Every structure is written in C-alpha cells, then in structure tokens.
Model the fold of this input.
Amino acid sequence: MLIVNFTPFPVMFTERLLLKQINDEDIHQLFELRSDKEVMKYIPRKPAQTIEDARQLILHFDEVVHNNEKITWGIFLKETVQLIGTIGYVNIYKDNYRAEIGYLLNPKFQGKGMMTEALKRVIEYGFNDLKFHSIEAIVHPENNGSSKLLENNQFKKEAYLKDNQFFDGKFIDSVIYSRINPN
Done:
C-alpha cells in the first residue's frame, strides 16, 4: 500500500506561481473564490455563503493534510502572493496507487496558462514524490476548458458516466480522465 506524508507541507514553485498551504490570512481570498458562481459552476458543491464557510474549509484542508489523507495547495501569484485558485489531490486511493486531482481558478486568470503550470507541477509531485501509478480527474461534461486542459497534459478520457452524482436535487453526468505514470 502507498504511504504518503505531507509533513512538512510541500511548498512548490513554477515560473509564475507559488503553491503553498492556505491559512487564515487567505480566508477572504478563499471566500471570494469559493463564493463565485462562475468558479463553482462545474463543481458539485454549494458555493460558500459566509466567511465561516471558508474558515471551515481551511480547517478541513488542515485536518486531511495532517492525517495524510488528501492535500490542497493554494495557487498564488509569485509576485503578489495573491490567491488565484486551488489544486490538490482531493481523493487518494492508497491501495491502488491512484489519486484524483481537483482544481479551480479565478476566471480573471483563466486562459493564461496558469492552471497548466500548476497542474504540471502537482502531477510531477504526484508521480515522482508520492509514487502514484495513475492520476484521475472527474469533469462535468460541459466543462470544455477543463477537458482541454487535461487532454493537453496527456490525460485520456476513460469513461462517461450517466447520472452518477446527485447534486442540488438532480443527477449529473461525469467524465473521467486519467494519466498513467510514464516512469
């Protein structure tokens, strides 16, 4: 079985980004992201309604990383340390050496290659440091931007699942993409 250890929290850099743990200093920026209906459009979770929702999310991030269950990085602009998104391994299947990656990005920064930078670095960490055999992503069928991002980063469509998630009073479909560790 795969063993993961997120202590100390892995801080990573790309050309333009800093990937680090989100803390209470970031609460207002996290609330802005998670309460934005456009950001949350394809994520089957209710948008944050209050600052307390963002605080609870930070506490959740802290708990699961402390327990080595999951990890979420804040995506910050390196120059200004502004939180512009999140990315992480939202599910880790240790018995199968597989993880599910999830991400979101402020619409003002979409289409500029920011998520590609973050995704490449987090995939590299997953394959090289965590020793995942494969990484999957679950995408809403209408989220063309996310599908394109994954396909441009060597993910292959594995499945189209009908009505496999129940959210907000209705069933929704999902598309599963995955990438196998090339090493």
Notes: The beta strands are 12-13, 17-20, 71-77, 83-93, 98-105, 134-139, 156-167, 170-180. The chain has four helices and eight strands.
